[in-house]
Structure formats: C-alpha cells, structure tokens
Amino acid sequence: MPVDFTNLGGWVEDRAAVERVLESLPMPLFGAAAPHLFGLAMPKTTLLYKAFKEVIGSYPAYVAQKIGDCVSMGFGHGVDLLQCVEIAMGGEAEAFEYTSTEAVYGMARVDIGGGRLGNGDGAVGAWAAKAVSTIGTVSRKVAGEYSGERAKSWGRSGVPADIKSQAGAHKVKTVSLVASWEEAKVAIANGYPVTICSDQGFTMNRDANGFCRPSGSWNHCMLLCGFREDEHPGGFIFQSWGPDTPSGPLSLDQPGNTFCAETSVVDRMIRQGDSWALSAFDGYPGRPLPASWTYDSMA
Known about the structure:
It is built from eleven helices and eight strands. With about 300 residues, the chain is an alpha+beta fold. Strands 1, 2, 3, 4, 5, 6, 7 and 8 form an eight-stranded antiparallel beta sheet that branches. A hairpin with a 5-residue loop joins strand 4 and strand 5. The longest helix is centred in the first third of the chain and has 19 residues. The protein is globular.
C-alpha cells in the first residue's frame, strides 16, 4: 500500500520565529537585497533543475523522507542545486557532494530553534535558513546515507560535535526571505534556488503538462527549481517523496520527483512568509544562466 506522504509534512508555521531570524540576518529580505535584479529582461522559462543533470549526469534519485523532516529536505536539496549551479557556471571549484539533510534538521531545530519542539517532528523554515548560512552544512560522505532514525535523533538532541565542527567550511553565503512569485522568478532566473514552506496541498498525479492541482492542506517544505511563462505558466517544485512521485506525465525534461504548480498557487504559498532564496555569494549578483537552461519561447 502506498505511503501517505501528506502526513509527513513537518513545516511549523511560526511567524514570530521567522521575525526573530529576520532581525538577525544581514540581508533578510530578497527584494531589498537584490533591487538591481528587478526590471531586467528575463527568459520566459528558466529550468534551474537542469544544473543537476549537467553536473551529476542525471537527476538525483533522492529517497523519500521517513519522518516530518521536510524542511531539512527542502533546504538540503536547495543546497545541492545551488552547488550544481555554481559548479556548472564555473564559480565553484569543489566537487559536488550531496548534503546531509539530517544535519540541517538537527542544527535548525536545536541550535537555532532551541529545542523547543521537543520530541515532535518538524521545523520552521527560517531556522533552517539561518542554520545553513551561519553554522553551515555537511555532506553525506561525512554524515552517512539518509536515515529517518538519525534525523529523529539529531532533531531531538542536536548534531554530534565532531560532525557539526565540519559544517563551517560549507555555508550558504546569503539567505533572504522571498515575498512573492515575482521575487521568486527573479531569484530563479539568476541562479538562486528558493525553498517554499506552506500549508498548500496538491493531488499526487501530474496532468499532461506536468502540473498537479492544488488540493487539501499539508504543512510542507519543498524547493522551487524552475518556472515557465509560456502557454502553461507555473513553477517547478522539487519534493521529498522519493523517485517518480507524483505519478503522471513529465514536461520540459523535468525530474521525476517534481511537479508544476500554477503561478497563482505558488504566489499564495510564498506569501505565507517562510520561503527563502539561497545564494553562494554575499548578496545576489545578476548573471545570465546557460542558454540550455532557459527559453524565450517554446517554438
């Protein structure tokens, strides 16, 4: 019997916690941190997820989350995509390594969140944003392959000191709150992945154009990894339910663990106030992406 992933959300909605994190960040708001990017011409379609295939040779076959640790999945996958973007564009000399989501989860919940969620699952997106940018990240080579039991343990007691001590060498340079679909598009068009935390649910089957319809409510964190403004406008969303989920047709070479959502739906999700752009720089330099990732028309 298929697993009901809708019960494994894990995003904790806490506006006060988000505000506390915003007060502590050097560039808290994407709109204020990247005003130079607005008003510039953008491709109608940007498929940032293609950086995965360019660097790794294929799309990641991430295993499905086992507990309510989706926030760490969204941010871990975002860090992975950010690595691939920078490597593909020649701005990163290090070899790609998958990010330990359990380490993100433990540092977010314990080091940033203060352990106040106790033994229950979940995290605030802002906690993960601050964790990856101030404490850092560690690779799966260091921490091991994904384990729900490890995520549960580290989310309760924290990341072991010998593991956490290696995180500082691999920080996300800048994280900033994204306030709207338009801001998210600007971030994606310049190579900056966007994590999305919301309570919007979806059907589990893609239509002929790769879209899932909004349906029900999940407290969930996912990753925005592309957009299209063609005859079927929407955002490509990378999830943490394992390969080939949702089911159904794919469009524009999208990975099997993604779906597309209508722009108005993505905008509503982002406006819940806990979605984050990730940058490997101090700030958000504008730069053209490889032509193979972008389209001005679908002709």
